[in-house]
Design goal:
By secondary structure, the protein is an alpha+beta fold. The protein folds into two domains: about 1-65 and about 170-340, Aminopeptidase (3-Layer(aba) Sandwich), CATH 3.40.630; about 65-155, Peptidase M42, domain 2 (Elongation Factor Tu (Ef-tu), domain 3), CATH 2.40.30.40. Helices cover about 30% and strands about 25% of the residues. Helix 1 (about 1-10) crosses helix 6 (about 175-190), helix 6 packs across helix 10 (about 325-340) and helix 8 packs across helix 10 (about 325-340). The longest helix is centred in the middle third of the chain and has 16 residues, at about 175-190. It starts with a helix and ends in a 7-residue tail after the last helix. It binds zinc ion. Zinc ion binds near residues 174 and 203.
């Protein structure tokens, strides 16, 4: 069931460069359904379903945005840097998990209570450089004894929960939603073609894993699976973001005003034709900001025809992302059908 799979993936932890435990979880889910599974030197998890000479790369990034220990001060407070694109205010007053050598250590991002804030303090949001993590320790030695040191990865401590209308909330649906879509696709797909399903690393810090994987595998075409932003809540207008949550997976036409990916028109036509034939609702995205693994894949080798299939997810890059399970199910149905055929180049 997609919801239970997403629950496991969202509750798992893996910032960019530390995706190992997410990779292990995914390996367990897909290994029985594929012919080969391996990890490359970057840490990408590559699952192969063997078919004919035409190969299709499907990519889903496993990494989540997080934090990393930079310094522990003389009172045992942990100072950190952000890894990936956070909005500072989002981090204030969050509970976090530090993934040290001796297992998980819990902490909080603390700050002044309103009672002791000045008028000036109240007016401006706290900057991440002024934030710190309190793990309860009273000295740097004690923090060290907990297995925490410079370079320890940190994630948010936020569990998956169900909301009304088959909607769910949790951390890092960007991009465990794409991982769930790709896992369910692998579990169901019957394709005449060779399918390379790559669960990539380090997307959030520069689309890195997808780049080396695409070079290594040299596929005939590629689809990245990821999340994108809907324009259906207060504060966003549909003229700026036209997508709706619950109205089907999203096919990228361009991202980042075309400076990222200009998707291959024949790839788009392939997915749209399949969706229309099967009565699967899809949406088209002309994106202003943000990129995906397809942005780096399409520039590998001599150029790889690519697009992205995304799940419209509210509040991405926060610990309370929200999506509609029906969109992931639609994405799986579309991929399973499309992979029975191939794009017409
Ligand atoms: Zn993403």
């Amino acid at each position: 069931m997609v919801k239970e799979l997403l629950r496991k993936l969202s509750n798992a932890h893996g910032i960019s460069g530390s995706e190992g435990s997410v990779a292990e979880l995914i390996r367990g889910e897909v290994a029985p359904y594929v012919d080969e599974i391996s990890e490359d030197p970057m840490g990408n998890l590559i699952a192969v379903k063997k078919g004919d000479d035409f190969s299709i790369l499907l990519a889903a990034h496993m990494d989540e945005i997080g934090l990393m220990v930079k310094f522990v001060d003389d009172r045992g407070y942990v100072r950190f840097v952000t890894v990936g694109g956070w909005f500072d205010a989002t981090l204030y007053a969050q509970r976090v998990v530090l993934h040290g050598e001796k297992g998980p250590v819990y902490g909080v991002i603390g700050g002044k209570p309103p009672h002791v804030m000045t008028e000036e303090d109240r007016k401006k949001p706290v900057k991440v450089d002024d934030m710190f993590i309190d793990v309860g320790a009273i000295s740097p030695e004690e923090v060290g004894d907990l297995g925490i040191e410079v370079g320890t990865p940190i994630t948010l401590d936020r569990e998956f929960r169900e909301l009304a209308n088959n909607r769910v909330t949790g951390k890092c649906f960007d991009n465990r939603a794409g991982c769930a879509m790709l896992i369910r696709t692998l579990q169901q797909v019957e394709s005449p073609h060779t399918i390379y399903a790559v669960f990539t690393v380090q997307e959030e810090v520069g689309l890195k894993g997808a780049k080396t994987a695409a070079y290594r595998l040299n596929p005939d075409c590629a689809i990245a699976t990821d999340t994108t932003i809907p324009g259906d809540h207060p504060g966003i207008e549909r003229k700026d973001v036209s997508l709706l949550m619950g109205e089907g997976p999203v096919i990228t036409v361009i991202d980042n005003n075309g400076r990222g990916l200009i998707a291959n028109r024949k790839m788009i036509a392939w997915l749209r034709t399949t969706a229309a034939a099967r009565g699967i609702k899809v949406q088209l995205e002309v994106g202003k900001g943000g990129t995906t693994d397809a942005t780096s894949i399409h520039l590998e080798r001599g150029g790889i025809p690519s697009t992205t299939l995304s799940i419209a997810t509210r509040y991405i890059h926060s610990p309370v992302e929200v999506l509609d399970i029906v969109d992931i199910e639609g994405g799986v149905a579309l991929l399973v059908e499309a992979l029975k055929t191939e794009p017409k180049f």
